[in-house]
Amino acid sequence: MNMHVAAWLIPALPLFAALVLALPRSERVASALTIGCSVVSFGLSIAVMCGLQMGGVLVLIAHWVEVDSLSALLLLLITLIATTAAIFSAGYIGPEHSALRTRLYYANFNLFVFSMLSIPLTVELGLVWIAVELTTLLSILLVSFSGTREALEAAWKYMVLTLLGATVAVLGVLMLFWALHVTGSTDFTWTGLRVAASVMPLALVKTAFALLLIGYGAKIGLVPLHTWLPDAHSQAPAPVCALLSGIETTVVLYVLLRLRGVFLQVPAVHVQAWFAVLGLISVGVAVLLIVQTHDFKRLFAFSTVEHMGIVLVAASFATPLGDAAAVWQILAHAVTKSFCFYAAGSALLVSGTRSIADVTGLLDKSKITAAALLVGSLAISGAPPFAVFLSELAIFRAGIVSQHYLVTGLLAAFIVIGFFGVLFHAGNMAFGRPAPGRRAWLKLPVLCGIALGIAALPVIVLGAWIPLALARLLLHSAAVLGG
Amino acid sequence: MAQSAALNLWQLAFVLGLSPLFAGIAQKCKELVASKRGPSIFQPYRDLRKLFAKDEVVSERSSWILRFTPYVVFVVPLVVTLLIPVLTDFPLFFAFVGDMLAAGFILAMSGFFFTLAAIDGGNPYGPMGASRTRMVGFLVEPVIIVVLFTVSFVADSTIPYIVQQHWVHPLANFFSASHVLLLIAFFMVILAETGRIPVDNPSGHFELAMVDESKALEFSGRSLALLKWGGYMKFTVLAIIFLNVLTAPWGLASTGTIPAMLLATVLIFVKVLVLVLLVVIVESSFAKLRLFRIQEFVGAAFIVSVTAMVMELLGL
Amino acid sequence: MSAWLYHLNALVLGLFILTAIAMVVMRQIGACMQVFVLQSLLLAASAFLLGGAPWSWHLFALGCVTIASKAVLIPWILRSMVPAQVYARREFSQSIDVSAILLSSLALLLAGYAAGIPLNAAAHSLSPANVSVGMAGLLIGLLQLAVRREAVPQILGILAMENGAFLVGIAIAPNFPLIAELAIAFDVPLLAFIVALLTRSVYQETGSTEVGSLTALRELL
C-alpha cells in the first residue's frame, strides 16, 4: 500500500470512528468499532515504520505534516496503547453505565487518540500547540467519566493546570515565531527553527524557552507543576489512565525533546542544565512520593512523574548515547506503564478499592491480577530482565561516558529508592496478609484478562529481544533527536 | 496688571456665587431621578441666608479652633481659586504663586482644621466622623500624589495653566491612555474627597453612618453657613480643577475682554453642570459602600492612577 | 503608525489592564463575565487598530474571530449550560482580601512592564506597549486563577490569560500562520463547552460550583 495513504489513514481512522459513534450505536458496536480502528491503525503504523527503516522523512504536506523516524515511533506507541486500551475498555466499561454514556465514552476515546496522533504528525509549531491543547480538552471528560466527587475534582485540577500550561506555552510559541520572523525565515517547523536558532535575538529565545518549558512541563507533570497528575491519573478509568500516563505525557515530552534540538543551538539558554535540574527534581520528589503513597493507582502515577524526569535527564546529556537511551526509555516506559495501569485497573475491578492496605493478599483472590501487578511493578521499577532495566542502564552509561558523574549518581540513587518503594508496595499487595474484614471480591472480566495478556507481551519480550525493524527505528529516532 | 487682578476677582465671584447653585441643582436632579419633586435649585441660597440670620451657640469648653475653623474652611477654596484657571486659559496675577501641589496642600489645611474642630466641639459623633474622614483622606492621599506625579511627568509641569494646554496640543494627546485613566482616577478622588456616594451619603441623617456630615453637628448659625458654603466651593473648585486643568481647556476665555469672559462664564457653567449630572448619575446608580469597603473603592482609584503612570512609561 | 492610532491603542491597552484587574476582584459572577466580554472586545479593538496602519487582513480577521468567539459564543455557552443560580450568586469567599489582590495585581502590572523591556529592546514589534500589557494581563489572569474559588471565574481567568497572550501575539507576530485564528475560533469555544459540561457535573454532584472547596484528593501524610 502507498505509504502516504497509510500515514493519512492512521489519524483518520479514530476520527472516523468518533464521527460514526456520534450517531446512535449499541455499546457492542461502539467497542468493536473502536477496537477495529485501533488495530488497523496499529497495523498501518507498523507499515509506516517498515517504510521508514532507512531513516528519511515522509512528507505529506511540506512544512505542515511530515513523518520521520521519531514521529513513526510515537505513532507506533500511540496506536499500540490505543489498541490495548480499547480492548481493556470493552471489559472495564461494564453494563452499569448507560448506553449513551458508553457510546460517548468511546467517541471521546477515539477523539482523544486522534488528538494524540496529530502531535507527532505535525511539524509546524502552531499546529503542534493546537494538537497539545486538544489532547487536554478531549481528555477532561474522560477523566471525570465516573462522575464521583473525587473524579470531578481531579478533572478540574487537571483542566486548570494543563490549560494554564497551554496558555503559557502559546505565548512561548508566539515568541519563538517572533524570533524566527526577525531572522527573515518563515519556516516555522522543527528543522526551520533549528537552522535559524543561532541567529535569533537571545532575549526572545530565552523567554520563549522559559515559557515553553513551563507550559509543556505542566502537561508532563514536571515538579512543581505535577500536583494534578496523581489525581487525574488515579481517578480516571483504567484504560484512560493507561492512555494518559503511558502515552499522553510521552507525546508532550516528545515536543519538549524536539524543542531541545532547537534550543541546543543557542548555548546561552543552558538547555542541558535546565533539563538536568528539573529532571532530577522531578525524579527525586516522585520517588519520595512513591514511598509514602497509600493508593496503588497514585503509586503508578508518581512513577510516571519519575520516568518523565528520567527521560529529561537522559536528554540533558545531549550525546548520541544519551539520545538513544532516552528514546529507548520512552518506548519501554510507554509499554510498561500502560500495562501497569491495566493491572491496577484489574485490581480495582476485583477488589473495589484503590487503597494498598485493603488489597493485601491479592494472590489468594485473583491470581491473574496479582501476577500482573507483580510483573508490572517489577518491570516499571527497573528490575531485570525487563526493558526499563536495560534503558536505565543505557542512561547511566551515557551519563558516565559524557562525564556527568554527579547527575548520573543522583539519578541512580533516586531510581534505587523508587525501585524499593514500588516493590515494597507491590509485594504487600500480592503477598501481604489479607486485610481483615470481609470484602466482596469480583471476577475479572474476560476481555480485561485478554487485554492484560496482549499488553504483557511487549513488556516481557522487549527486555529480551527487539525486532530488527524496531531497532532500526530506534536508532534513526535517536539520530533525528540529536539532529 | 489691573485687568489681571480684575479677572481674578471675576473668577472668585464665579466660584463664590455659583457653587451653592451647583449644589442645589445636584440635589434637585437626584430627587428627580428618584421620581420625587425635590426642593428648588435655589434652596441652598435660602438655607445660607437663614443660617446667617440665626444665633450661634458655642460650647464654652471649646477653644479658639472651633471659632476659627469656619473661616478657614470658607477661605481656603477661594485661595485655591486664585491659583487655577477658572475662566481664562492664560495665566492671571496669582498663577505662578503656587502649583497643583500647593493647591492640594492648601485644601488639606481646611480638612486639618475641620478635623480638629470636630474633636474640639465635644460632640460624641464629631471625633467619629473626623477619624473616618481622616481614614478616607489617608487612602486618597497616595492616589492624588500618583495623579499629580503622572501629570507632571506627562506635561513636564505642575502649573495648572501649562498642564491644561498639554492635553489638546496636539489633539491626539486628549485620547492618550494616561490622560483618560487620570481623569477616571481623579473623578473617583473627587467622589471620595467631597463625601459623595459611594463613599459617603451627603444627604444622610443617621449620625452613626455619617462620615463627613457628623463633623459639622456642633456648629450653628453663621459658622454652619460658612462651613456649608465652604463645602460647596470645595466641590466646585475640585470640579474646575478636574474639568479645566485635567480634562481640557475648552470653553475658557483666551482674551480678557468682557464678551469673551461672559461667554466663558456661561460655557464653564455648562461644563460644571455636566460634571454635576455625572455625579448625580453615579450617586443614583450606586449604593453607599460599607465603611470597610471604602478602601476597595479608593484602591480601585489607585490602580487606575498607577495604570495611567505605567501606560505613560510604556509610551517612552 | 499615526499619533491617533497610537494613542487610541494605548487607551485600549490601559482599559485592558483595568478589566483584567476588575475580573480578579469582581464579586458578582455575572458581572465578572461581562467584564470578560469587554476585555475581549478591547483585544479585538487593539487588533483592528494595529491592523489598520500597515493594512493587515490577518489582524482584521483575528479581531473578527475574537469578537465572534469570545464576546458572543463563549458567554452564550457558559450562560446556557451552567445553571442560572450560579450567576445570581453575589458574594463568595476569595482566598485573600481585595486590597491584597489589588496590590498584587499592581506588582504584576509592574512585572509585566519590566518583562517587556528586554523583549522590546531585542526586536521590533508593531507596538511595544502591547508586549508589556499582554504579559501583565497574563500574570493577572494567573492571579485570578489562584484567588478565585468559583468555577466560572476560574475559567474566565484562564481565558483572560489567553487574552493577554494574544494581546502580545498581535503585536509581535502579525502574520502568524493560521494558528491564532484556529485556536480562537475552535479551541476556545470547545474549551468553554467542555468546561461548562464539567461545571454542570460539579454542580449536580456537589450542589455548588465552588471548586475551591474540592480538596479531597491529596497526599495522606
Characteristic terms for this protein:
heterotrimer, A: mainly alpha, 3 domains, two-stranded antiparallel ribbon, C: 221 residues, mainly alpha, 8 helices, globular
Description:
The complex is a heterotrimer of chains A (483), B (316) and C (221). The longest helix of chain A is centred in the middle third of the chain and has 34 residues, at 149-182. Chain A is an all-alpha fold and 483 residues long. Chain A folds into three domains: 1-122; 127-259; 270-483, no CATH class. Chain A has 19 helices and two strands. Chain A has helices at 3-21, 27-51, 69-92, 99-121, 125-143, 149-182, 190-196, 202-220, 228-235, 238-263, 271-292, 296-317, 320-351, 362-365, 367-381, 387-401, 405-431, 446-464, 468-482; strands spanning 58-61, 65-67. Chain B starts with a helix and ends with a helix. In chain B, 68% of the residues lie in helices and 0% in strands. Chain B is globular and about 55 Å long. Chain B has helices at residues 2-33, 43-53, 64-83, 100-120, 125-155, 160-166, 177-193, 221-247, 258-285, 294-314. With 221 residues, chain C is mostly helical. Chain C is globular and about 55 Å long. The model of chain C has no long low-confidence stretch (mean pLDDT 87). At the A-C interface, helix 5, helix 6, helix 8 and helix 9 of A face helix 5, helix 6, helix 7 and helix 8 of C.
Determine the strand fraction of chain A and express it as a percent band: under 5%
Backbone shape of chain A: globular
- How many runs of DSSP E, i.e. beta strands of chain A? 2
Main β-sheet of chain A, in a few words? 2 strands, antiparallel
Number of helical regions of chain C: 8
Largest interface: chains, residues each: A-C, 52 and 52 residues
Structural class of chain A: mainly alpha
Q: What's the overall average pLDDT of chain C, rounded?
A: 87
Q: Uncertain runs of chain C with pLDDT below 50, 5 residues or more?
A: none
**Strand residue percentage of chain C:** under 5%
